[in-house]
Amino acid sequence: MTTRVNVLFSFLFITIFLNIFNINQARQHKNPSSSSSSSSSSSSSSSPSSFLVLALTKSSVSLPTPKSETQERIKKPLESSIGAVMEPLREVRDGYLITLNIGTPPQSVQVYMDTGSDLTWVPCGNLSFDCIDCYDFKNNNLKSSSTFSPLHSSSSFRASCASSYCVEIHSSDNAFDPCAIAGCSVGMLLKSTCLRPCPTFAYTYGEGGLVSGILTRDILKAQTRDVPRFSFGCVASTYHEPIGIAGFGRGLLSLPSQLGFVQKGFSHCFLPFKFVNNPNISSPLILGDSLLSGNLTNSLQFTPMLNTPMYPNSYYIGLESITIGTNVTATQVPLTLKQFDSQGNGGMLIDSGTTYTHLPDPLYSQILTSLQSTITYPRATETESRIGFDLCYKVPCPNNNLTSLENDATMMFPSITFHFLNNAALILPQGNSFYAMSAPSDGSVVKCLLFRNMEDGDYGPAGVFGSFQQQNVKVVYDLEKERIGFQVMDCVTEAVSHGLSKVREQQQKSSIF
C-alpha cells in the first residue's frame, strides 16, 4: 500500500457532502508522476464569517489560453479572515463526498474528500468522461454522476506555465521547468513573458490508479466566500479512478490552502457505514480556527504530526502500541510505525481516502492471534476465503435483529485501543473493528475484522489509519500546532447540532440491510 497522490484538483465548492461507500478495497495515493514546473503563486479573496461547516455526503477538453500570470511569484498561501467554515460530507461507498460549485454559472461536481493528497481534480469533458478499467466500480454504481464542462463556464481558463501551482503539480525544484517544457525560449523565461499553458500532468495512486489532465483555474463558490482563481485538475480520462478527488493535504494546491486555512485547521466526524446513501443526514466537516478554541480541544487526545521529506504534504502520526480488550500488556509495534528511515519511509499515515486501517507484519499477525485467543464465537472461514478478510466470526443474532445485537453488551467484541505518541489513546468504537458483512440469517450474522495487512510497508508509510476506524470519532487537524486530536463521539448528534440531519430518528432506522 502507499499514500494517496495529489490528483487533479477539479472544481471544489464548499458544500461538502460526505457519505461512506463501503468498499472492501483501500484507496491510497502516491506522489504525482509528472514532468517539471515553474514558479509563481495564487491569490484569492476572503470575506468575514464566523466559521465554515461542510457536509460530506471520490473526450478532449478545450480551454481558453492562460490569462497573464507572468508577474506572479511564489507567495505564502492566502490568510483568510474567516473564523471557520462548515459543510456537510455525504457518505457513499469507499469514502465521503464533497460537492464543489465551480465556474460561471456554477456547475456542481461531487468528489471524494481525501486527506492523503493535495490536488483537487474533477471529471472533465464536453461530452463524456472516460474511466478505463472501471467495470467493478460501474457494477457497484460507483461512478461520477456529473462532470465539469469548461466550455460552459465563462470564467474558466488554463493555468499558466509560470504559475506556482504548475510548478507544484509537476513536482519540480526548478521554477522554469514547466515553461521550458511548454516551449518557451530562454529569453522569455528570463523576462517572465511566457504565456503558454501549464503542460499536461499525470498523477498515480497507490492501488494502481492513474489520472492525466490539465491544470485549470476558475471561480470556486463557497457558502461564505468565492475563490476567483481556484486551481484544480481538469481530467477527461482516468484508469481505475471513477470519481474526482478534493485534496485536503498540507500543500499549496490543497483545498484548505486555497481557502486560506492552511495555517489553521479542519475537523470531521464520519458517520457509520449504516448511513451510506442516506439523504437525510450528512457528516460535518469544519474548516477554520474556531474549532481549535480551548473549550473545544480540552476533551481531545492530541498526538504530534510527524514530518517526512518523502511526503511533506501528508499527515503522519506515530503509533506506539495497541491494546486488545483489558490486557495489561500492550502489543508493541515496530519502530517504523513511529519514526522514519533515512529515505523518509515509515510512520502511520492518517488518510480519509483509505477505507481500512493497514498494519504491517508481524504486528498485524500478533493482533489477529490476540483477538483469536479472546473471542469464543465460531470462525466463519468460508466468508474469510470469499471476501478476503482474515478474521470473521459467526455471531448469534436473535430474531435476526441486528440493531438489538449492536446494543447488547454481552455480544461485544474485545475493545481495540490505539496508543499514539504523546500518550494519546483512542479506544475504537465497537462498530469500528468488526462489521456485519451481510444481513442476519437463521439467527446469526457474520462479522469480520476490517483491518488489512500492510503488504508494501518497506516503501512509503509503514501503516495507514483508515476512514472506517475514524467513524464516530471527531478528528481535528490542528495545522498551526502540527498535531492531530481524537475524541470518540456520536457523529449523528454532532451532525444534528450543525443542522445536517432532517430526522433524528434516522439513527435507528438507517441500515444497509
Fold and architecture overview:
- By secondary structure, the chain is an alpha+beta fold.
- The chain folds into 2 domains: 52-58 and 92-262, Cathepsin D, subunit A, domain 1 (Beta Barrel); 290-498, Beta Barrel (Cathepsin D, subunit A, domain 1).
- Helices cover 12% and strands 28% of the residues.
- It contains 11 helices and 29 strands.
- The strands form 6 sheets. Strands 1, 2, 3, 4, 5, 12, 13, 14, 15, 28 and 29 form an 11-stranded mixed sheet that branches. Strands 6, 7, 8, 9, 10 and 11 form a 6-stranded mixed sheet that branches.
- Residues 1-50, 58-63, 67-82 and 505-513 have low confidence and may be disordered.
Write the layout of secondary structure elements.
Layout (H helix, E strand, L loop, with lengths): L17 E2 L32 E5 L27 E9 L2 E8 L4 E8 L6 E3 L6 E3 L2 H5 L17 E2 L5 H6 L7 H5 L4 H6 L9 E4 L5 E12 L4 E14 L4 E4 L7 H5 L5 E5 L13 E6 L5 H4 L3 E4 L11 E2 L1 E6 L6 E2 L15 E3 L6 E3 L3 H10 L8 H7 L4 E5 L5 H5 L9 E5 L3 E4 L6 E3 L7 E6 L1 E3 L9 E3 L7 E6 L4 E6 L2 H7 L8 H4 L4
Parallel strand pairs: 1-3, 2-3, 5-12, 6-11, 7-11, 19-27, 20-26
Antiparallel strand pairs: 2-14, 3-4, 3-14, 4-5, 8-10, 9-10, 10-11, 13-14, 13-28, 15-29, 16-19, 17-18, 17-22, 21-25, 22-23, 24-25, 28-29
